[in-house]
């Protein structure tokens, strides 16, 4: 039964991607609704991921978040052969020329996949992979047979390639979340934006064999330019519409309350990196079954 569910979900995911491709190809423009800018465009705690060190070196302070204390995991590992993720056709699904015309990031499921069932919601998990929290998150999701979307930071992928690969192997989607999570992202020069996106894209491909098709700006630092640059690299800009601000550790109950208030079609944001995520994990442990009990279905983007 669970296998059939998983299969159905994979088919659903493929459908969503294909629908999205046709949507982008057809409209090529701003088909997205108007949501106010992300509330936390500025000082997010996961700024810790951006220590300003350069991408060139893997050692040292490329990221000073908790992940930075775990050097060398998965080093000298031969990258897997490049392949497509289960639900995402390899290459060319989202024509860059069309994406360039996009003016706003996607912030709800209906923007991204109109064919998704009405009871679908999407959980997005940002700022990993992290050696402590990502495995716990993966175990929890597996326990509840939930597929999610992980927004990966390039320097963390470089340090923990096996974790990134495990995410993909478990059937989750991956999203480019820049190389070093610089904020405010929208203040970067286009050249730096490009470098951040391209470097992360390569790290994700090297570790997982998957070409990410989604991009989430660090801290929700969107601007028209950010969206354009993402589009130039074939990436769909993905925002969120439910933010429990778990990064600020407001308490398990507050995180849960915020997530439980979500409506069908929501894209929910939480984190598996950038600090102690025990509250997030605890909250999800109750939130996931309750949302499922309500008849909502989790889909990967
Ligand atoms: Zn982030």
* Tally of DSSP β-strands: 7
**Cofactors, ions, other ligands:** zinc ion
As for the number of domains, it is 1
- Would you give the CATH topology? TIM Barrel
Describe this structure in words.
GO terms for molecular function: hydrolase activity, acting on carbon-nitrogen (but not peptide) bonds. One of its GO terms (biological process) is carbohydrate metabolic process. Pfam families: Polysacc_deac_1. Residues 119-299 form the NodB homology domain. Residues 40-68 have a biased composition (Low complexity). There is one protein chain. The chain is of the alpha/beta class and 301 residues long. The protein has a single domain (2-29, 102-298), classed as Glycoside hydrolase/deacetylase (TIM Barrel). The protein is 38% helix and 9% strand. Strands 1, 2, 3, 6 and 7 form a five-stranded parallel sheet that branches. The protein has a two-stranded parallel sheet with strand order 4-5. Strand 4 (214-215), helix 8 and strand 5 (236-237) form a beta-alpha-beta unit. Bound molecules: zinc ion (ZN). Zinc ion binds at residues 46, 126-127, 177, 181, 218. Residues 46, 126-127, 177, 181, 218 line the site of zinc ion (ZN).
